[in-house]
Design a protein that fits this description.
242 residues; mainly alpha; two-stranded antiparallel ribbon; 6 helices; 4 strands; 45% helix
Length: 242
């Protein structure tokens, strides 16, 4: 093997800075990095980004500091510029099922306009609704509805009271509750001790009219309320001595 003698200048690589194309590395900010020595990785990344079907992903491996994130981000921006702008995806509150929001697709840029418009609308109704509730026509309509509902309720209560009396029951309204009390032939309320003296057949026969009274009242009240309105549980019970 031939041994050659090297001078100190032979052990040092000198690069002419004028051949680099820049004066300072600050000028390289924003310039896409080159995939030096990674031609196969670059080809694979471009192939993967061109897949339009869902379900495909890219797995990028490598040591830290090699510029994987920077190079792939630059390629993503390059590929995105070649494709149509995607629509805005907005999620709206689902008042019927709060855990399942409604997805709304809008042309690019319209989502922000929708958000701004909704913010202005919410601000407007916060000012307009209180003013609207103070107007005379609103109070007149409200009083008319209250009077109509009260008249219907009283009429239904009177009909139910007549039905209950015909079947030896007393109906009493107590803070929104309906209480049905059984009466004997003399019109005296049947207490728990008296009810225990009745035979099972007698108690069963007396229970049927009580249940009918309860069903009648519930059906009557439901006819006043909207079909979609939740039913107040405090109205749905009947009380008796047994």
């Amino acid at each position: 093997m031939t041994v050659a003698e090297l001078n100190p200048s032979d052990l040092r690589l000198t690069v002419d800075h004028t051949s680099l194309g820049f004066e300072d590395t600050f000028e390289l900010r924003g310039v896409p990095l080159s995939w030096v020595g990674q031609e196969r990785a670059e080809t694979a990344a471009r192939f993967g980004l061109q897949m339009r079907q869902p379900g495909y992903n890219l797995l990028v491996l490598g040591s830290a500091g090699m510029g994987r994130t920077s190079m792939l981000t630059a390629m993503l921006h390059e590929q995105a510029a070649l494709r149509p702008v995607p629509p805005d995806l907005c999620f709206l509150n689902n008042f019927e099922q709060a855990d399942q929001p409604l997805a709304l697709r809008l042309p690019a840029g319209q989502g922000r306009r929708l958000e701004q418009g909704m913010a202005l609308w919410v601000q407007a109704i916060q000012e307009d609704v209180p003013q609207r509730l103070l107007q005379a026509d609103f109070w007149a309509a409200r009083q008319e509805l209250e009077q109509t509902f009260k008249a219907q309720t009283e009429a239904a209560y009177a009909a139910l009271t007549g039905y209950a009396q015909a079947h030896h029951f007393a109906v009493v309204r107590d803070q929104g509750h309906m209480v049905f009390t059984l009466k004997d032939a003399q019109g005296t309320p049947v207490t728990a001790s008296k009810a225990l003296l009745l035979s099972p057949a007698e108690r069963k026969a007396l229970t049927r009219p009580k249940r009918r009274c309860g069903r009648r009242w519930i059906i009557t009240l439901r006819s006043f309320a909207p079909q979609s309105a939740p039913w107040p549980k405090r109205w749905m019970f009947c009380a008796s001595a047994f």
